[in-house]
Amino acid sequence: MLAIQFTPFPVLHTPRLILRQLTPDDAPAVQFFRSDAAFLRYVPREPEPSMQQAQEHIQLLHDNWANNISITWGLSWPNQPDLLGTICLWNLQPENYRAEIGYGLHPVHSRQGLMSEAMAAVVRFGLETMKLHSIEAHLDPGNDASIRLLEKHGFVREGLFRENIYFGGQFLDTAVYTRWAPAQV
């Protein structure tokens, strides 16, 4: 079984970004990410609009990191603390050497290749440092930008779960994409 140890917090660097631990100062951005209708367009989750909910979410992410349950990085410019987005490895399956990746970027920073840089760093961390066998992504099959991002980073579509989520009064589909460790491709 895979041994998971996220301490100390692994800060990652890309050509333009630093991937760092979230702090209480990130609560306004987290509040936006968890409440903005456009940001949540492809996420079947009720909005959480309060600052208290954002602070509680940051604490949950910290606790999950401290207990080696999951890890979430905040994306920032190297010399500016503003939170541009987040990316995480969660839903860890140590017995299967597998994890799920999740990510989101503030819309004002989209189409600049920032999430692509972050994804490259996190996939490398997952496969090389954590020694994962595979990383999966679950997403709305209509999220074309996310599909292009995943495919750019070697993820392939494994399947489609039809109407497996009931949200907002309707049944929604989920596409599953996976990236395997290089030796397994």
UniProtKB/TrEMBL annotation:
Pfam family name, one: Acetyltransf_3
InterPro entries the record matches: Acyl_CoA_acyltransferase (IPR016181), GNAT_dom (IPR000182), N-acetyltransferase (IPR051531)
Superkingdom of source: Bacteria
Ranges where the N-acetyltransferase domain occurs: 17-182
Protein's UniProt name: GNAT family N-acetyltransferase
Species of origin: Hymenobacter negativus
